[in-house]
């Protein structure tokens, strides 16, 4: 079933294509906030029958529209309502914690018509983990339902001691309101007459109720917030339409996925199931967003610092200095039936926290923010060397001790994702290749920051540790017969000899030997790894390969984007452009030109990418992937602390002009146009505005021929 979903801050609404939440739906439809479903049924009918869907769209993310009409209706041989007489337009949006919906009925018949229309509502207050079928447990109960002529209120007493309530109100008197939650209106419409019913749905938690505004005022405020986002972010325009669509779609999706817990905006992981703070996902999405809106990176860093681990708690896989994996707010979490308050079971969130801070500093030069975050950054570095290194071998490993925890704690966290050539699953503790790269970048980057702060002895210690780690990594992870890095070392320090996308992340970290880095870049875009639509998570030649799997042969856009950052930085331009072309081709086949969380890894000879059945869309780090395309096409590598912005432009096939406005770097913005003229292999750069305070250096491509 296709869904329609809208979100604003912490409230999101998931329905079927007609805009309904059918009773007993197994697709998780509902209105959610704080990991609780506050609306579990919403059905519209006309004369007791479901209308016919003509079209629907949630393309703008913050609003959804549905166009429906009536079926043919007869009673005892008499026409009650001729087919397609009444157009029904549903329009909904969310603003400041309230759902607004208008239902406009237009009579397109030649004569006056009369009919009844009903809206049936209910709320079960189910926990998100229960809705997803992951966990059942001790829960509260619905304690009452009050029914009035202009409103319904449904109340719930949670097992966590929190009172919850759903309030549904409408703007015109109803003719009947039934105890089951069915609200009926009798309408009579002259030809071309329009009547509109307006609804509001307000979730209430612990007696804290958002205040509904007049509909037009709420819509104006929502539109204004999106305009501010667009005006304050980098904009692009090119002569390659699919890139324009992808970038604009990514920016709108990321705006929708922003949430603020009081420490600045940050992206939640994705809809519908991951609309909460995630360490890894939020950090990577914020990293992707640096060229567009670096303020999100700062909000993400501040939020993660607030929830940084402070103690040893095996139930939550928490240790001091560790950055969280995921936080939940529902009944099961509040009663400690699940460990997500927050849960710390990810091995990469902590080094990625440091990496994002380093990259934020490189893009902005904001040393004040780094000073503010320094206690959290120092604790993260301590975690890397202490709790993160489980056996003292200098590599960071994971091993879950929580009975409710996650077994595999890298980004490929499914149970079958770390698999030996024999087909056996690796046993923990496991040291992942890409995590060692993040750690290397964290140490070398923090060494540079320490030098800026005059802390030279600490900088030198980090550099020595990083150099020693680099030497040992090359010895331990390199698979000579594959000319590639192993995905991991298992508990016995044996290589997990699968060829996967994970080592592609190393390219952005500086960890691999340069010659080996080139072999990695070439292998990632070879036939066994590159489907034509993107880099697969696992090689076709590896034992565990399955193009339909979640992590062992599928294509994840964000995974590709982290490979792309490194390819661009190291000058592997041919490979980078090949990957961007593939992903742009894939995007043309998805709704709204939106890259999903993942898709299957089948060859592009099929003529279209094969969707993964339960991929989240939109997903933050998939939405952020086109922003990395912009970095690739510009060859953008800022070093604001040293006062330099490097460009190594290389435009993809089909793009001969790329204009960038308000690129946020340093203390200001940069606006420029890159043009490839006929007969010239190297694009020209025209700078129209530069208030960044940095010198702009335009370099030539290295390593590869940019012709593609």
What is the average of the pLDDT values? 95
What does the radius of gyration come to? 27 Å
| Outline type | globular
Please tell me the CATH architecture of the largest domain by its name. Answer: Alpha/alpha barrel
Number of helices: 15
Protein name: Glycogen debranching enzyme
Pfam families: GDE_N_bis, MGH1-like_GH
Domain Mannosylglycerate hydrolase MGH1-like glycoside hydrolase: 343-598
Domain Putative glycogen debranching enzyme N-terminal: 6-199
Description:
The protein has 708 residues and is an alpha+beta fold. It contains 15 helices and 32 strands. A hairpin with a 5-residue loop joins strand 25 (488-489) and strand 26 (495-496). Helix 4 (279-288) packs parallel to helix 7 (349-364), helix 5 crosses helix 8 and helix 7 packs antiparallel against helix 8 (367-385). Residues 704-708 have low confidence and may be disordered. It comes from Thermobacillus composti (strain DSM 18247 / JCM 13945 / KWC4).
